[in-house]
Input
Amino acid sequence: MAEAEAHSIVIVGGGICGLATALALHRKGIASLVLEKSRSLRADGAGIGVHANGWRVLEQLGVASELRETAHLITVYHDVWQQGDRTSREKVPVRTELRCLNRKDLIEALAKDIPAGMIRFGCRIAAIDADPSSHGAVLTMADGTTMKAKVLIGCEGTYSVVAKYLGLSPVRTIPRAVLRGFTWFPHGHSFENEFLRLRVGDFFIGRLTITDNLVHFFITMPKPPTGIHPHGQPGPFLRNNECLPDDVMNEPADVSTKDLKKVRDVALKEMQDVECPAEIIDIVRDSDPESLNFVTEFWYRPPWEVIFGSFQKGTVTVAGDAMHAMGPFIGQGGSAGLEDAVVLARSLARAVDDADGAGKDAPASARETMIGKAIGEYIRERRPRVALLSLESFIMGALLVRSPSPVTKLACVAVLILLGSKSLRHAYYDCGRL
Ligand SMILES: Cc1cc2nc3c(=O)[nH]c(=O)nc-3n(C[C@H](O)[C@H](O)[C@H](O)COP(=O)(O)OP(=O)(O)OC[C@H]3O[C@@H](n4cnc5c(N)ncnc54)[C@H](O)[C@@H]3O)c2cc1C
Output
């Protein structure tokens, strides 16, 4: 039988966190291999809000200035609550750096400095087993081929095979239908550089300015439109026509542009029924169909699992949503994954230096022990941070979608005050230099 291909560091998943981790390692002079199941870079979800903590990471990775050129600073949260004839408004200044990036720009900026050959597309990991000859793992691809990894980092998001190997429970879901997309204004728009958050009827709508010509929107719908579930499967649909067939972990199936337009039509009709402002209806109606993305669930790992979960087995670990999926409630999932990348690369680089310092004659097992310890350090550093973010997002989600009793509501608000949620304390975090 042919020998399995072997690599030092393998990263599963070429999303925000996987690419940031590969780039961070590359900046430290360490090679890795990213395995991505899609046939090309994927960037589902149109826009992504990146707060100051995420920008600090992008600076460490050397991609902040080019990305700042692509998106204006958002200076105001503009909250509007429309109930029948009454409309209340509040404008709160954003005191830290917040920009809404086109996910595609972010993904491409992270990928472009990763050397050719370090990202392998069309490579879906189906299973992970322990490697009896090392502290690492053996990966089995969907096509049956295998690969050995001395260090394995699972960055493959919510349906993580690596997280399963580590013994973590599957992520939990909250049913919630969200349509996202971009609208292009060829002659410019007249909106402020703001994050508009509008409640009207049972809709929660967001509009974020990206440039003078581009706007990102999301619409949280009361219920998903019926009759557009491909394969009759319930669950979220992620738009990416270039993905390989989903046959392994009951993952969400893709939804076609035709179905996305149907979702948009249903949303438009319902928005008209609740007398949503015409300006918002126009944005949704004129949106670019190719940019549309629709999910029917939010994924999260409860905070207690983040606090107590096992994130390491030998030299195998997880980062990004695979470790701490937290839903969109505080807009920190992506930035937290960026922070993971810097902390993990820093810890691994220190271990590689120590191992190199021990000399060529040092046994391989000593090197592996040093790398294992470095991964332990990474987890110790990240756990309190991501536990607090997960807790804040969980509580915010409970307030927004679960209609808690008055007592629970009071307790939730008290915890959010302690966490400094209103002043975005989480965005002031600095995960340090690479
Ligand atoms: C509606 C919504 C709005 C959001 N808004 C924000 C926001 O404003 N700001 C913010 O910071 N966060 C936001 N988030 C969260 C953010 O999108 C995620 O936290 C972030 O995308 C996670 O990045 P990741 O790289 O860990 O995982 P992913 O982005 O899920 O990337 C995983 C990658 O792994 C690949 N993959 C999966 N399985 C396999 C496999 N078996 N083998 C090989 N490859 C595999 C996938 O194709 C994908 O490319 C939002 C989330 C939602 C749902």
User: Anything to note?
Assistant: The radius of gyration is 22 Å. The first strand starts at residue 5 and ends at 12. Confidence is low (pLDDT under 50) at residues 230-250. Residues 12-18, 35-38, 42, 45, 48-49, 124-125, 155-157, 159, 161, 178, 295, 298, 320-321, 328, 331-335, 337 surround flavin-adenine dinucleotide (CB under 6 Å).
